[in-house]
Amino acid sequence: MSEKIKFWLLLGLFALSIALLWYLNHADQRLFIG
Amino acid sequence: MLNCMRLRSLHYREANNILFVAIVAINLYIIAAPIWPQFSFWWQSHHTQRQAQLTRLIHPTEAIAPKQEAGQPNSLIIPALLLDQPTLEGPEKDWFNLLKQGIWRWPASSTPDKGGNTVFLAHRFSYTGPHGAFYYLNKLKPGIEIAVIWSNKLYHYKVVSSTEVPPTDTAIEDNTPDAEITLFTCTPLWHPVNRLVVVAKLEGQQ
After folding, report:
1. Which of A11, A24, A34 sits opposite B123 (nearest CB)?
2. Per the CB < 8 Å rule, is B23 touching A10?
3. How much is the pTM?
4. What is the ipTM of this complex?
5. What is residue B162's three-state secondary structure?
């Protein structure tokens, strides 16, 4: 796989990880409300 | 031309390495954060004197009586849970941010110096702020000691009950003739549908 394709795949994964972290930080009221 | 392509490939490789490390770090945090309070509690229980320190803190003897210094923050101390955290004050409209930061006194409830029912609530688990001040609230059983530092005075309470109620049961926040504190959070831990309510009666003050 070329480095360029790997880069775009990793960038997508990075964006997904950030989105998941953001969601967990802001939506934990619904997920784990205390 | 060939050199230019090689250089670009090198740049992509460097960027890929950085992205890979960042992805691993973020996801490790997401996975480890919920387990962290358990590990922290186990570590502090087995390798530190935290519980003994907190017990001494709420039972100051004459010889080593720590002076209740003016300006000391109001706080909740539960040696059995290795918990010593300041309690927060704020209006109901700010509940989301206050709960993110730690233990919040329900503004409509009483305060320890006035008697009646003082209600404290906190998250069971949260990715932000202290990782769930009441993570282990389910460990509180009747007879366990709780202390509250309020306006530079120490109030001692003893747990009398630990129950589960539906979120619609707001009677837990009602005032009571006896001086007591009500601690509540959500339960069960990973699928919170009810409220875990711990009530402790005043035993004395210093």
Report:
1. A34
2. yes
3. 0.79
4. 0.84
5. strand
Cβ <8 Å between B30 and A3: no
CA distance B180 to chain A (A): 21
Tens of pLDDT, residue by residue, chain B (206 residues): 667 767 777 788 999 999 999 999 999 998 988 888 888 889 988 888 888 889 888 887 754 445 455 667 899 999 999 999 999 999 988 888 888 888 999 999 999 999 999 999 998 887 766 678 898 999 999 999 999 999 989 999 999 999 999 988 888 889 999 999 999 998 888 777 889 999 999 998 87
B157 touches B203 (CB < 8 A): yes
Half-sphere exposure of B92 (CA within 13 A, CB side): 5
Helix (H, G, I), strand (E, B) or coil at B63: coil
Q: How many residues does chain B have?
A: 206
CB count in 10 Å sphere of residue B186: 24
Contact B128 A21 (CB under 8 A): no
| A17 contacts on B by Cβ (under 8 Å) | 22-23, 26-27, 30
Contact check, Cβ <8 Å, B16/A6: yes
| A-interface mutation test, from B4, B5, B19, most A Cβ less than 10 A away | B19
The helix (run of H) or strand (run of E) holding residue B73 is: none
The Cα–Cα gap between B193 and B51 comes to 31
